Automatic annotation (TrEMBL):
The lineage of its organism: Bacteria, Pseudomonadati, Pseudomonadota, Alphaproteobacteria, Hyphomicrobiales. Mg(2+) binds at residues 49, 88, 120. Binds 1 Mg(2+) ion per subunit. Its cofactor is Mg(2+). 3-methyl-2-oxobutanoate binds at residues 49-50, 88, 118. This is 3-methyl-2-oxobutanoate hydroxymethyltransferase. Keywords: Cytoplasm, Magnesium, Metal-binding, Pantothenate biosynthesis, Transferase. Belongs to the PanB family. Homodecamer; pentamer of dimers. It comes from Rhizobium puerariae.
Amino acid sequence: MSVPAKQGRLTPKRIRSMKGGQPIVCLTAYTTPMARLLDAHCDLLLVGDSLGMVLYGMETTVSVTLDMMIAHGKAVMRGVGNACVVVDMPFGTYQESREVAFRNAVRILQETGCDAVKLEGGEEMAETIAFLAARGIPVLGHIGLMPQQVHTAGGYRSVGHSDEESATIRRDASAIGSSGAFAVVIEGTVETLARELTALVDVPTIGIGASSACDGQILVSDDMLGLFNDFTPRFVKRYDELGQRVHKAAESYARDVRARQFPAPEHTFKRRF
Ligand code: KIV
């Protein structure tokens, strides 16, 4: 399939304007080669702190550091010419105060050259997002299931099943929607509530495990490609099984090496004289 070339990266302002239009296509990317492969197909690439679990084998995203996010943000920026690039602010780098959040967001923007940052949180983070947005930092919000709060939530579980929980998430959506965020990720949220939130807020909602009612969708690329097999959340559709293909390729390579069938003559340098 040929993908038409586009001029420059999509801006957060452009993503904002896509509310209610064609669904916004988003995926995660952590490295230059993956960013190069995904860029032409996506409106937005997220350098998610999920990289802690997917690339580094951590149990949660809580231990991911700012330096890790900046290193991977830089790598992704080297591979992107079309998509809007957003880098996650890791746990502990924005909750303390809006000034701390500003300083760390500035580092991310200046050192990676990305377009925006993402941070998790509802009502309690709205003031911080407004502070950043008013000072030139585009912010993508993230409500519903918030993986950085795994310890207080007691695990990863979908949200919006009770009236009380739905009311809290409604308040979160409304606060983030009017905080100056250019869009908001809604994670692991029941369909009826996700639909309601999408109608409630003026900015695009990007769903992950939040039904087709959202203005856009995001998945962790390694999940949908079948590269991350520790666990697969129910909301993930596997578009390939690259992990199995890697196994097969490594098995063939090992067999060839042990049988001295690799390297073959065409892979071998011969003396010219
Ligand atoms: O870290 C991440 O990859 C994310 C997405 C799952 C939305 O926050």
